[in-house]
Amino acid sequence: MRLLSLIASFAAFVACGTAAQDPTTPPAKLTPSPLDPLRAFVGIWDVTGGVWLPGQDEAPLTGTEYFQMVCGDRWLKSMVRCEVAGARYEAVSLTGWDPLAGAYVGFFFDSDDSRAQQSFADYAPKSRTWSSKFVPRPREPDSRSVLVWEGEDVIKETGYCTDETGAERRSQEFVRRRRKLPAGTLADRAPLNLEPSASAKTARAAEAVASTDEQTETPISVTDLSSYLGTWDATELIPQAEGDPIEAKGVEVNTAVCNGRWVLSEYRGSHMGEIVERLAIFGYDNSRFTVHWVDSRSPHLTQLEGGRNAEHRTITYRGAIRTPDGQEVEYSLLQTWRGQNQRTAEFGFGTAQDGRRVTVSYERRPDPTGK
User: Fold this and answer.
1) Cis ω for the linkage preceding 23 (within 30 of 0)
2) pLDDT tens, 252-265?
3) Cα 118 to Cα 317: distance, rounded to the nearest angstrom
4) Engineering a disulfide at 256: which of 42, 201, 225, 363 sits with its beta carbon 3.0 to 4.6 angstroms away?
């Protein structure tokens, strides 16, 4: 739950109709629900505090953080934009309850690193305290944070990390204060001032990746990440054991986040009368493309990575998806560009040769700004 290490699309290809998804009652109907402590964060918060780097004075931090429940109320999404010592910093995180792990699991994406970070947290309801531990990324120290509610609209959080001697030190401390919104305002709707303009999104995606990935194949990463941006109409064909495939339709909105280092994709559609929501974040980490996604049917986050075939204009992702009982099953995705505004995805269990595959066709809507 920390701001700088967990303030923690390309989502229409998730197999919403496959057996790997959890068909149980939506978590919002559970009483009591382990997601209730996450719902308390929903709203817009002003953030002030400081960050301490080794051998340096406190770097002041000011900004805004926005929390929203997404994907059928299963996941808490956080988006933050702030300044640290005058430098702009952005982050996105996803936090949910994993019933198999018996813990809150978070995934964090920021403008300083092309690698996602995972965290595990416990919540003590009597003291209203969150204790989080973070899985270190390469060349990062061990770190943790303690978040305490000081009333309904004030949160204090302190972060700690180990130094070169192995001793733990305070690394950051800040206070969140919830904004008082006008009557009738939807607290789960993102304020417009947190979203860049459509033209700025494309420019930032190219500029940020080019400036921060100096040791990567920059033209490949810039071209493929920025090509996802925009609003897409999606038509999904789901094969059946007998008869013709079932057709499902939806809309996917892809925007550049974290100073353009990542692309956030949010999908909403229907499948056999059921509303389906999915959220994914994808990026480029040195020699590989990555995608992390969640949806309204499963409490588990799926991670895939892959490589690009420039000649055939494809990216092939591979990884594993977790079934409701916790088993990991091989999963793959083939993403193909058919033109500037058309792409397709084929995905499912195993490889493309293993049997039936879900197919999604995407058509990008014209940019209303004309750019």
Assistant:
1) no
2) 999 999 988 999 99
3) 20
4) 201
